[in-house]
Amino acid sequence: MVVIRLSRGGSKKRPFYNIVAADSRNRRDGRFLERVGFYNPVASGNAEGLRVAFDRIDYWAGNGAQLSPTVDRLVKQAKAKLAPAA
Asked: Is domain 2-85 classified as CATH 1.10.10.60?
């Protein structure tokens, strides 16, 4: 099964997460099918903290991919931030 989840990067005490579509049997930071965004929880100033490719999320979800609870929360958060601007 394909799952859309976070893959950790960055250094010690400075996490950076890629939002990836991956086979659920692969390791958290292992092989993935496609990178569909990123999340930087320690972004400050003008640094971008969250970027999501909604079209690719919809594509994978339409093909049966499951979103992890954290990614689901982040996608809803990004959509809420995008809605007032539109």
From this structure: no
Token pair listed for 61: 């979800």
The whole-model pTM stands at 0.91
Which residue has 């990123």 as its token pair?
Answer: 38
User: Per-residue pLDDT tens for 3-45?
Assistant: 999 999 999 999 999 999 999 999 998 999 999 999 999 999 8
Q: How far is CA 25 from CA 4, 30, 36, 42, 86, in A?
A: 12, 10, 19, 29, 38
Domain ranges of the chain: 2-85
